[in-house]
Structure formats: C-alpha cells, structure tokens
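Journal club prep — side note

Before the paper discussion, L.F. wants everyone to see what a predicted structure for a comparable chain looks like in token form. Sequence:
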Amino acid sequence: MVCLGNICRSPMAEGILRKMIDEKNLSVQVDSAGTGNWHSGERPDKRAISTAKKFGVDISKLVARQIEVSDFENFDKIFVMDKSNYRTVVQMARSKEDSSKVELLMNLCFPGSDTEVPDPWSGDEDGFIPVFKMMEKACSSLIASLKIS
C-alpha cells in the first residue's frame, strides 16, 4: 500500500488489510510505504490512528518508510492511492513486469475507473472516515479475489 508520506492512507490500508487477512487466517505479506521520505521513521498521523481504532484496526505501531526498488521483488502487487503515486512508483519500475504490479487501490472495487483515494492530511479528523471506508471496500474486494487453496 503506497501513498505520499506513509502516515495517513497507506498505513490505514495496511491495517485494514492485515485485519481482514487475520480474520480469514490467510498467509499474505502486507506492508505500506510512501513515495516521499519526509516522514520516514515516524508513526502514522494521530488522526489516522484514531480513525482506524474506531473501526477496530490498530496501526499505532506502524512506522513510515519510503518505497524501494526491492519492493518490486518482495511483493506481487503494489497498490497506490492516487495517480501521482502511480506515476512515481511506475517510474521506479525496472521492467514491464515490475510496472504491471502497480495498480490504483480503488480499481479493485471500481475496475478501470482510476478512482483516487483522497489525501485527508490537510483536513480534520472527520475527513479520515470516508477515506477509511473507501479503502475498506477496496480491501474487501481484494480479499474476495484471492485464490485460497
């Protein structure tokens, strides 16, 4: 899960997906990162932590990091929150195979729509709730699409 600073959207998305994976007892690796390094080493925004907690998701121990080229090797899919994140991550790709791993998160529930997850950072805590619910819907679609053997 990738957003700009890895303190709002992507850690909430990571937490949502981790919770769903745990509930289904699946073995799936999940992480989050930012395209920028401004917040590397920091915990998520307190509004993101509070919002996630309201929905039973604990992201308080996550630590921001910047996406790395090695993430293309370590993950089958890289979900980004908006078109700017998409462009940045695709520019890092070393091959067509790498770039094919990058997808806008909301395309999971609205295929081909290229709907962006708005960045709630500049608003108040109320703006985090609809963002959380959007990502929860996308993560539900992802879980439903997994082939469980």
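L.F.'s comment for the group: The chain is about 40% helix and 5% strand. Keep this in mind when we get to the figures.
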